[in-house]
Amino acid sequence: HPINAHENNTTTCCYCGVGCGIVAHKDQLGRLQVEGDKDYPVNKGMLCSKGMNLHYTVNDYSDRLLYPEMRYSRNLPRQRVSWEMALERTAAVFRTLIDKYGPDSVAFYASGQCLTEEYYIVNKLIKGYIGSNNIDTNSRLCMSSAVVGYKMSLGEDSVPVSYEDLEVADVIFVAGANPAWCHPVLWRRVEAARQTNPDLKIIVSDPRKTQTCSIADVHLQLHPGTDITLHHAIGRALIEKGYIDADFVNDHTEGFAQYRKQVFSKTIAEAAQVCGVEEEAIRQVADYIGRARGFMTLWTMGLNQSVVGVNKNLSLINLNLITGHIGKPGSGPLSLTGQPNAMGGREVGGLSNLLPAHRDLLNVQHRREVEDFWGIRPGTISDKPGLTATEMFDALEDGRLKAIWILCTNPLISLPDVRKAEAALKKAKFVVVQEISNKPETLAYADVVLPAAAWTEKEGTMTNAERRISYLNKIMEAPGEALPDATILCRFAQKMGFTGFDFENTAAIFNEHGALTAGTRMDISALNYELLKARRSVQWPFTEAAGKQGTSRLFEDHQFYTTSHRAQIHSFPDDNHSETPSPDYPLILTTGRIRDQWHTMSKTGKVNKLKQHISESFLEIHPEDATPRQIKENDLVVIKSRRGEVRIKARLSDTIKQGVVFLPMHWGKILGKDGNRANNLTNNLVDPKSKEPDFKFSAVAVYRY
Ligand code: SF4
């Protein structure tokens, strides 16, 4: 599998949303090697352990899917078939189901790891041509609460800051995140900023004392689910001390009076007690924020993955708004994206309730604009939001959904209450899995398997967490008959008889996506592959006024994207609607990442070096919770929830809040048994506005095996 003789073998890391630049080259044995791109503004040559070891995942073909496979009935094994036959049959089944049960009987479940062009095609295919909005991605499990939070507070899903703002902030508040492990290169930049500016204050809120806390001035070790109470209390302390920016609040926001009333409904002492933190710590945090010239809020899954995830987001963004810390250097909210291209997916409308370029599915004018652009009959795009990630599996279970096409994601590890999802896939009439690896558990249910080209084997673009679009070169050929995901989807669309998918190349897909953004707030219509190759990356919006590298900061004019052009300060009670612990399930389980593994390990699990840090899954439990249960270090324990159980070794640690236990999210089944899959335990309660699941709060019992 030769490496292409491209002069420029630059690409972007395919793991987290930091989006580090990589230079790939061939070693003497012809194998791919990678190093951090010193000229890339995001990482300036740095890579974390996962990025540094990416070449091992690329050079190891042992698990790659090489040929399409198909079976004619559930009782028969799959067999190798031609692309022609696999796509012909898939199209025939889809046509039959759509004719018989309607367009909403089929769905696509995609991934924040898809390239923007792939997202664009799958979204166009189902919304514009099949006539259903049943396209959702695993970004629903990750960023959808932040999307709604931004829309409700700022008027659009628009991250207002750049990473460079972190280097000029005076105070950084990291809420429910462990960037030292999960966004390591970005955190190295914060650590470097602290060295340059020892007065930089870092605040972390997290039930676990993580690596990120090692440089924190204040660690608010709160009870899970109490983030809103904490943020409200900080808001109250800021108001009491006169730290709000009254001019900004009066001139550029709405909702402050109601907010003031809401946050004053609890004293700071009461809030501290609810959260399980010191009252003095809350006041100290407010003092730091109140005196800052630049104040940034950072967050990720601790806020997003919650049944009240949107309110958690809004309550944090409120702290930026009441202090006027937005639209100026070193200030603003920055949601850390879990996946490399979750933002690119949102740009093309790749969720069941969105349309391209941040258009709204429920807005009839927006639907007409997209229909006109695609040249399809008015009314083709349905006004009914499609099924979200968890809803798709519910609908498979109860028979509303007949067929699902899963691409670039492994839902049988990553979905909440995963055994329910497994039962749903068993009931599906037709399952297509488009994958690079033969490992994902979904393959056991696949009627058709389509081998996809992996990272470095195709070109395309991604957008990182600071709105930075980068171009990824194709560096090597895909093995066997694997094809780029966009090619597979276009060929399928053509088999379905749809016009509008005969793109000459990937650049043409990007250009069509760009043209649809013209005149919107994320306008990149002037951008193309040539420019991207020359400039390596740009931040949207990329307009003439923005300059050569695009726009690094939004809202400098304080004109927000809401109808009134004012940012919205939302008010709501601080209730948490998670499941209730009980004497039978007294502990709270929270799940998350470890430093050297990525998602469901289909790539990082192949790299021995990445197992050196943590080689197997574990339950983290506080000694005060372990001792009464006679649990000692390394004992095998059973964790039970109302959904299922996990058996695993215990790790005792006083860095986790008493009453809380932690399981890594990465591991799947062991020897075909339920093993240590964290999502056996989680529930599929979702936030009503974002439909993001409540991964961080499951009531569990733990006892010695
Ligand atoms: Fe890749 Fe994220 Fe690590 Fe950068 S920080 S090398 S993008 S995993």
Automatic annotation (TrEMBL):
<keyword id="KW-0274">FAD</keyword>
<keyword id="KW-0285">Flavoprotein</keyword>
<keyword id="KW-0408">Iron</keyword>
<dbReference type="GO" id="GO:0043546">
    <property type="term" value="F:molybdopterin cofactor binding"/>
</dbReference>
<feature type="domain" description="4Fe-4S Mo/W bis-MGD-type">
    <location>
        <begin position="6"/>
        <end position="62"/>
    </location>
</feature>
<comment type="similarity">
    <text>Belongs to the prokaryotic molybdopterin-containing oxidoreductase family. NasA/NapA/NarB subfamily.</text>
</comment>
<dbReference type="GO" id="GO:0046872">
    <property type="term" value="F:metal ion binding"/>
</dbReference>
<dbReference type="GO" id="GO:0016020">
    <property type="term" value="C:membrane"/>
</dbReference>
<dbReference type="GO" id="GO:0045333">
    <property type="term" value="P:cellular respiration"/>
</dbReference>
<keyword id="KW-0004">4Fe-4S</keyword>
<keyword id="KW-0574">Periplasm</keyword>
<comment type="function">
    <text>Catalytic subunit of the periplasmic nitrate reductase complex NapAB. Receives electrons from NapB and catalyzes the reduction of nitrate to nitrite.</text>
</comment>
<keyword id="KW-0813">Transport</keyword>
<keyword id="KW-0479">Metal-binding</keyword>
<dbReference type="GO" id="GO:0042128">
    <property type="term" value="P:nitrate assimilation"/>
</dbReference>
<keyword id="KW-0560">Oxidoreductase</keyword>
<keyword id="KW-0500">Molybdenum</keyword>
<keyword id="KW-0732">Signal</keyword>
<dbReference type="GO" id="GO:0051539">
    <property type="term" value="F:4 iron, 4 sulfur cluster binding"/>
</dbReference>
<keyword id="KW-0249">Electron transport</keyword>
<dbReference type="GO" id="GO:0050140">
    <property type="term" value="F:nitrate reductase (cytochrome) activity"/>
</dbReference>
<protein>
    <recommendedName>
        <fullName>nitrate reductase (cytochrome)</fullName>
        <ecNumber>1.9.6.1</ecNumber>
    </recommendedName>
</protein>
<keyword id="KW-0411">Iron-sulfur</keyword>
<keyword id="KW-0534">Nitrate assimilation</keyword>
